[in-house]
Model the fold of this input.
Amino acid sequence: GDAVFGEPYQYGGFVRNAVVTMYLLLFSAYWVWSATRLAHDAAPLATMRKFCNQKLALSDRDLYTITWPEVLQRVVHLQATTRLSIARDLNEHDIVARILRKENYLTGMVNRDVLKLSLDAPGLQNHRWFTKVIEWNIDLAVFHGMFDDNFTIVPSFYDVSALRHRFRCLAIINAILSPFVAIFLSMYFVLSYAEKFYNTPSAVGARDWSSYAYWRMREFNELPHFTQQRLAAAYPHAKKYVAQFPSPVVNILAKFVSYVVGAFAACALFCAIVDDRLLQAYVGDRDLLWITAVLGTILASSRALMATENAVFEPNVIMSKIVAHTHYLPKHWRDAAHKEEVQHEFNSFFSLKAVMFLEEIASVFAAPFVLWFPLCDSADDIIQFVRQFTVNKSGVGDMCSLSAFDFNRHGNKHYGAPSHASKEQRSRQGKMEKSFLTFQATYPAWEPDASGRDMLNSLNGFTNANESALGRSADLSASVLKRSTRLKDLSTSPEKAGVRHRGGNGNAILRQPAHGSGSMFQPAFVSDIRDGDSLVEALSASQTVLQHFYEDQADTHDVDTAARNSPTRDDVSGDAIKAGTPTIDMIQMYQRPAATVTQMVSFPEEASIDRAQNGQPSVLDSCLLPTSTVLPPVEDATWREH
Done:
């Protein structure tokens, strides 16, 4: 009865009562706003469900299991009978570019180091404040209201003073709400991880990718779950890399605590064996059973912080496996994964969850200063970036030109692009070229333009010329690099393929199924194109080939450059060359093939491809059937044997 007060305000001071009242009012208002928004979105969600059921032939059960590339493939195929855009028919790239319009701009800004996120304070000059709180504020200040109803950037957006004003208004709002947001985040963290920590005490040393790492490694036109899939594939290798550099002090302390606590736990266990009633004996204010449970938690936590015994020291090898999935490799990381500088920078990307939580709480109070000072100073650069990297595409609207895969305007020949733009126009570290390759691997039915096919053609020629040196990567990447060749032959010679689909245009060629959406009855040429490889394997192999191509093509004095003061710089300064700093020609992380690349000026002729004789409906025919007949692909166990 003492825990319930009829008049709670008389038991607290003025400040405590004011904080509690304000907290309850703010989050009650937030709950009402969320409920209102859910009610407002109910009608559009019902319309979307009806569209999926009737137009895309997807049942509610299918929506739980179908892959996004197949959904997108069905939408593109639907345009044979249904008009979706007044301007023109949209392909996979157009639809994704419309969905990720704002995200592509933010990806480009992070890649070009447009956003200044460091405070000019002692000890904080090199720390980037890019947490979820900062990300939400950037979205509100920059991208909220950026486009009109026609998906065109409004003229008022280019007002630098207005952007600074929005940053400063948000800084004031954040300063007022910071205590309440900090309380909310603390409660959310405790409720989310308390049970997990209780059942798995070793989770105290768990790590995860930071928000800045997510946006630094995210690629253009890449949906969030695909980015998470790549980072999840790199996660076990990232843990191994971090384990390569155990802290001697932490390791000694963890062993000491483990030894002492283990001794007490052994005594408690001995008492239980002698007489289980001893567990009910009190030591101080707690019984022995409670003390044993606490000691077990401390023991598991300390062991999680101990260094792995008999670990092989090979940081460069492990880093190469990480890069195969993250596609992020600054020049100063190459063949330097064992150096302290690289280790500290990687730890900032792959940090302890506990540290990330503390940083998130600290960013709540740092957000007003970040918004008022460094981000206000970035306003000119933000507006200039949008002016310089915006293009209007029919049926899409204004979009980041780097996400348009415009190789004539932004290409980098060192990464296989057919043209070479100026340094001010290129993405850094070949981000656009890597994104193009990722998009082609994710959406195999998409047919790029002539410049995109030229890039695939160049990489395909490089792979053929260095097949023995590239090894398995050459085989796995073939499903991505050789796709444009085969699709071109099929589109130019319909009679050679002899494959049609029902509905709409009778002369339309059967489109290749997306990864994860293969059918039991798919035609033979489709299986040959995909080679049975998973998306992760094909994407990793193709990016490895692209990295080999860069190492082979890049000139030491004219490589992909970034700002001189950027921590992700790719340039080689004259002082570094004189000092004997390892350059692109000296690295060993990727063994460069010795053979010279053979440029292909035209697509090779392919043998005629016959249709499968089973006569069963294809994966795209199922779009017009009342229920989905798509089944997951049968895995090829050939590579598993090795």
Notes: Residues 14-54 form the longest helix (41 residues). The radius of gyration is 28 Å. The longest strand covers residues 390-393. DSSP finds 26 helices and six strands in the chain.
